[in-house]
TrEMBL record, chain A:
PANTHER family, per database record: ABC TRANSPORTER, PERMEASE PROTEIN, GUANOSINE ABC TRANSPORTER PERMEASE PROTEIN NUPP
InterPro entries associated with the record: ABC_transp_permease
Main location as per UniProt: membrane
Topology in membrane: Multi-pass membrane protein
Name of protein: Sugar ABC transporter permease
Key words, A-Z: Cell membrane, Membrane, Transmembrane, Transmembrane helix
Any one GO CC term of the record: plasma membrane
Compartments reported by the entry: Cell membrane
Keyword Transmembrane helix: yes
Pfam families the UniProt entry points to: BPD_transp_2
Highest taxon, organism lineage: Bacteria
Coiled coil ranges: none
Length: 363, 530
């Protein structure tokens, strides 16, 4: 007996929806086995990880606070990924967006006019775009692999942040702690609800709607998908390869930059050496789990935000290490990419029987 | 079904080598082979004929062990056998030369052959054996040359020699002449006849009825998964063979001899284009005029600059010299493809899936692909009007007989012939004034091919200039008013189809029409050896 992958004649609509669900179930099963191997009761541990955080108001607000940057970055990445450009450096664009978005609150903190906040958003976006334009330029000019260049720029961005908060941008009244000055109220994003939740989630939802409209209704969205799936056909349709590389990187850089600026201005209130628990990397998982579809990304963003909060919650209630969050995120990406095979292939069990014709389909 | 070629007319019946007895193969709902019987005798060249989708490939794959039959038996020299995989087929004595070669370009001929031999083969004297076999059967081959440097005809020889080294009793050849010049094909026929004389049976799959008639003693004709006829092709005409294949009279292409040509609508002036990479062809000083109302055919062997020429005319690659390409009186050398489309030009590339159409897109979105720039109804300030594209898709489907299992499917799910009808129909539906088409009926069944060719001629007769690039000489003769030949990036001057003989085309294909005598010695040798 052997398993064979048989190509389907068209994409399976059912599997497109079912694949992430299947991946989630497999992640839970594998997670349960992992907990059992570590000596925890799997049921209890999974409850602490995935359900307990949903039982109180505070956690739900916290969930949205964390989902905001994930969704915003992932929506940008979905455009880039659909066009077959692999921007792995959203974490770096996020960091640079946070830096450029902090120029007004740190260097020009006296300026508190009504335009301060819109300017901060704009500068965050420009910072992210500038950082994303480096791999775009290298790819279009020299054919460099953008996966490597965008990833390496993440570390440069992080060291730049580290240098600035320990050096020139350190708060003069901050007792030598490696932190910038606290942002003025005029430089802090408007809050919603009980106080933690800020406008960042609104930015994310606006981006979701805008990108959804672009991808489904406009020629630009059509171009992105054609170039991503079949560049040769794209050239035949008159689309430009270079143009689409730049477009994908700039959109995703702008989204990540705004997310970085919003995180600093809305959640942290100052620059610190570490401003992200890996949002830029986790957003890659969000983008794929959400089928590179803006609406799907909203749900995937909420789920991955839950994995952050679940990690913290399981640490408190049953003493699990919070590294388990990363393990869960990794397993989820692994399973979702594996299950995606089923969209274009079906699994068949081939019996090598004496008598011919023993093939039974099994999904 | 009449049995026209009577077996008893053969002087002596040779012993039966292999017999397929009511072979059936089911893929899901589809019965690709329905109780197929096939008898091949030792030393006979047996043709397997049928339209695309008739079930030829399925049957051959079962014989070669690449597929397992759902029902039925294979009897080899009187004994029932199972052929679970290609290795089993090879040890039984079945060899196969595929239409698309599986060779590693960076390796030598000997390395490529060694890779395909059974694990326990002694490789020490392989080069000598290759030379011995290639000389015996008239297939000159240097075991130490690198595959990347070899022309297609020679690559095919590697595949054949690879099979012959295992001394097969049955050699299956899938469309072997599709990549050869007429002269190369003649050489191949001699080899096949020599093999047959030694007792090796050959199962010969081809669309080219002329050559089947010329070299095959038996023919089995399949249609819709069943064997519909058996005959002696030597006693038939191409027309009767074609009728058996498609089950009805093939619509004869009508080319109105009274052509009224007008202004030149496609003009190429000293068109030069450097090679894009090591495997591409450089276009050298190409001159051509195609007038309104005529069809010009460009013949040539694969990879002699056809796709480069197509890209230069369509604008997928742009030329520094704006006057090198002139469409409908406008110099467009540097203009993009959509600019050229707006002038009234339409293009159909060779590769339908992945160039002419996006495989994973629905047909309506594939209508959008080439027509958003010319149809105001498809695009309103950057917003796509998908409803209108779906209407066009319906219209193309009806007018060009595109068959599909459900409405508006993904392009990849259509069969080759149907997708080609769609891709051609999509452009004809625009009523273009210039049409450039590369390989209009490559791998397309006879019915669809006739429909497409007739549509191209009809388009020209309404006053359009049509340029057909094709490797199929029958097709070139069927549609063209004038014929030119492309060889290593150079184009011969077009000549009227009535005075252009096949022999002359063959000579031009081998490089005799090249204007500049700057060929390397190696190139000359290749041309001479072909």
């Amino acid at each position: 007996m052997r398993l064979e992958l048989e190509k389907r004649s068209e994409h399976s609509a059912l599997m497109t929806i079912l694949s992430p669900v299947l991946a989630l179930v497999l992640t839970l099963i594998a997670g349960g086995i992992l907990f059992a191997a570590m000596g925890y009761n799997p049921g209890e541990a999974l409850y602490a990880f995935f359900l307990e955080p949903l039982t109180n108001q505070w956690s739900i607000e916290e969930l949205l606070v964390k989902a905001g940057p994930l969704i915003l970055i992932a929506v940008g990445l979905s455009v880039c990924f659909l066009s077959n450009n692999w921007n792995i450096g959203a974490e770096g664009q996020f960091t640079i967006g946070a830096l450029t978005g902090s120029i007004i609150p740190i260097l020009f903190h006296e300026y508190t006019g009504p335009m301060a906040m819109p300017l901060m958003v704009l500068m965050g976006a420009l910072g992210g775009m500038a950082w994303a334009s480096v791999p775009a330029f290298l790819k279009t000019r020299f054919g460099t692999n953008e996966i490597l260049t965008s990833l390496m720029l993440v570390y440069i961005a992080q060291y730049l942040l580290d240098y600035l908060v320990r050096g020139p941008w350190r708060d003069p009244d901050g007792f030598n702690f490696p932190e910038s000055r606290l942002f003025d109220d005029a430089h802090t994003l408007m809050t919603l609800g009980d106080g933690r939740l800020h406008l960042g989630i609104v930015f994310a939802l606006v981006a979701v709607l805008a990108v959804w409209f672009m991808l489904s209704q406009t020629l630009k969205g059509f171009e992105i998908k054609v170039m991503g799936e079949t560049p040769r056909a794209g050239r035949f349709a008159g689309f430009s390869h270079r143009g689409i590389v730049w477009f994908g990187f700039l959109i995703s850089g702008a989204c990540a930059g705004i997310a970085g600026m919003a995180e600093v201005s809305g959640s942290i209130g100052q620059l610190t050496p570490v401003i992200s628990p890996g949002y830029g990397f986790t957003a890659i998982i969000v983008a794929f789990l959400g089928r590179l579809n803006p609406i799907g990304i909203v749900f995937a963003g909420l789920l991955l935000a839950l994995s952050y909060i679940g990690g913290e919650s399981a640490q408190v209630s049953i003493g699990l290490t919070d590294k388990i969050t990363r393990v869960f995120q990794g397993m989820l990406l692994f399973f979702v990419l594996g299950c995606d095979t089923l969209i274009l292939y079906r699994i068949r069990l081939i019996k090598t029987a004496r008598k011919a014709g023993g093939a039974h389909g099994r999904a | 079904m009449s049995n026209q070629g009577v077996p008893s007319s053969e002087p002596a019946e040779k012993p039966v080598l292999v017999k397929a007895v009511s072979i059936s193969k089911r893929f899901g709902e589809v019965l690709a082979n329905d109780s197929v019987d096939l008898t091949i005798r030792e030393g006979e060249i047996h043709a397997l004929l049928g339209e695309n989708g008739a079930g030829k490939s399925t049957l051959v794959k079962i014989l070669y062990g690449a597929l397992e039959q759902t029902a039925g038996d294979i009897v080899w020299r009187g004994q029932s056998v199972k052929i679970p995989n290609p290795a089993a087929a090879r040890s039984l004595g079945v060899g196969m030369v595929f239409q698309h070669f599986s060779l590693f370009e960076a390796l030598t001929v000997a390395d490529n052959i060694a890779l395909a031999l059974p694990k326990d083969t002694d490789l020490s004297n392989l080069p000598e054996r290759i030379v011995a076999v290639s000389q015996k059967y008239g297939l000159p081959l240097d075991p130490f040359s690198t595959v990347a440097d070899l022309p297609v005809g020679v690559r095919q020889r590697i595949e054949i020699v690879r099979c012959l080294l295992q001394e097969p009793s049955l050699l299956i050849m899938d469309e072997p002449t599709s990549v050869l010049t007429p002269q190369e094909a003649d050489e191949l026929f001699k080899t096949l006849e020599r093999l047959a004389a030694e007792g090796c049976a050959i199962l010969y799959i081809s669309h080219r009825l002329e050559e089947v008639k010329r070299i095959c003693q038996r023919a089995t004709i399949m249609r819709h998964g069943k064997v519909v006829n058996e005959c002696d092709p030597r006693l038939e005409t191409p027309a009767t063979l074609a009728r058996m294949m498609v089950g009805a009279d093939v619509h004869a292409i009508k080319s109105n001899s009274e052509i009224t040509t007008g202004n030149p609508l496609i003009t190429l002036r000293n068109l030069c284009l450097p090679a894009e990479n090591a495997f591409a062809v450089e276009l050298k000083n190409i001159d051509l005029e195609v007038f309104a109302g005529e069809v010009v055919g460009i013949a040539g062997i694969a990879a002699n600059g056809q796709s480069e020429l197509f890209d230069a005319i369509s604008g997928e690659r742009r030329i520094e010299d704006v006057h090198a390409v002139n469409l409908l009186g406008v110099p467009v050398g540097k203009k993009k493809i959509n600019h050229r489309r707006k002038l009234g030009a339409a293009f159909v590339p060779e590769e339908r899936l992945g160039h002419g159409a996006v495989p994973g897109f629905r047909l309506s979105d594939n209508v959008m692909l080439t027509r958003f720039s010319t149809e105001p109804s498809l695009l309103l300030r950057g917003i796509l009007k998908r409803g209108n594209a779906a209407e066009m898709e319906q219209r193309i489907k009806v007018n060009y007989d595109v068959r599909m299992t459900h409405d508006n499917p993904e392009a990849r799910s259509l069969s080759g012939g149907n997708l080609q009808k769609f891709v051609v129909g999509r452009e004809l539906d625009r009523k273009p004034r210039v049409m450039v088409i590369n390989q209009p009926t490559w791998g397309v069944d006879a019915g669809a091919a006739a429909l497409i060719r007739q549509a191209l001629i009809d388009l020209a007769r309404t006053g359009a200039a049509v340029l057909v690039i094709s490797q199929d000489l029958d097709e070139i003769y069927e549609v063209s008013d004038r014929i030119a030949v492309i060889s290593r990036g150079q184009l011969s001057a077009p000549e009227p189809a009535e005075t252009m003989t096949r022999e002359r085309i063959g000579m031009l294909m081998a490089g005799m029409g090249e204007k500049h005598d700057n060929n390397t010695d190696k190139g000359q040798k290749h041309a001479a050896g072909a």
